[in-house]
Amino acid sequence: MPERVRVLVVAASLDILGGQAVQAERMIRHLQNEPSVQVAFLPINPRLPGILRKLQSIKYVRTVTTSILYILNLLREVRKYDVIHVFSAAYLSFLIAPTPAILVSKLYGKKILLNYHSGEAEDHLQRWPRSTKSMMGLVDKVVVPSEYLLRVFAKFGIDTIVIFNLIDLDQFEFRQRTNLRPLFLSNRNLEAHYGVDCILRAFAHIQKNIPDAVLTVVGDGSQRNALENLANELHLQPHATFTGRVEHAEITRQYSASDIYLNASKIDNQPLSILEAFACGLPVVTTDAGGIPDIVTDENTGFLVPVGDHEALASRALKLLEDQSIATKMTELARLECTRHTWPVVGPQWLDLYHSVTKK
Length: 360
Known about the structure:
- By secondary structure, the protein is an alpha/beta fold.
- The protein has two domains: 5-166 and 342-358, 3-Layer(aba) Sandwich (Rossmann fold); 169-340, 3-Layer(aba) Sandwich (Rossmann fold).
- It is 43% helix and 16% strand.
- The chain has helices spanning 19-31, 59-77, 91-96, 98-107, 121-127, 129-136, 147-155, 196-209, 224-233, 251-257, 272-280, 310-322, 324-338, 343-358, and strands spanning 5-11, 37-43, 83-88, 111-116, 141-144, 161-162, 183-187, 214-218, 240-244, 260-263, 284-287, 303-305.
- The strands form two sheets. It has a six-stranded parallel beta sheet with strand order 2-1-3-4-5-6, sandwiched between helices. It has a six-stranded parallel beta sheet with strand order 9-8-7-10-11-12, sandwiched between helices.
- The relative contact order is 0.12.
């Protein structure tokens, strides 16, 4: 039996609720059951010990202290592993998290996989070409979760490997909605590029047609106050509710309580929330931003509308309610799409990659 490959996953912990943290947690859980690898996790957002943790509640001090502890952890832990699997976002986050991990891994002569997830990749590579391309030149492989990002990176002469995001179907209850109710769900961080303002405007149009329609907005972020003010301006209360942050372990309840999933991203890659909606039997109406058309086929696994078109978003949502047979077919096909993102498909690709890079 070949020697086990020691893999260190470097990513955000679930203290930062988002797709990368969820993806890292799922991967580690599965890798722990694989006999050919030994896996460990190093968070980019470590908690300071004891009384020092209070420093992480102070805005700028938090960044400095967390970064120092993160780099010290890298220096201590990276040397123990064969492959360093680094999750990556864009812009400043790329400098703060992946860059130190790449440099320390290179210092110790380790194999490095950069797992880039951001839908903002094209703008990032255009605006920050030196810092990104120089770092990517140091890694052994750049891995992306969508054909969309493969195409983006190819424009800049960067070779990538596509391995899809992972979803555990047994964590989500698929429910065929034979009688769709006007209960809508949005589950994205409240940041400008996720277009939740477009969902609110679409819902205002839906409400004119269906006064008892309900929208639940799950998530938190820098745009929350602005979005709540917009909801007030559009007179959506009390039918539009902002829940704030919902822990990932609890999100299945929100999917279960809803009947139609709305997404209005302006920039995106391969949203886990759409895959989760698929897994729960929620028909999806979404904009066609970035890599979304790679997982949502219009009038097949969901409805696609142009970015920023809240009227089209509302119209397609109303179409589902008018002809509910559409949703039945759509959700069955969407459930099949999910199978491409399960561990029996995705896992062997990661295992092959870990073993192949160590042989070079």
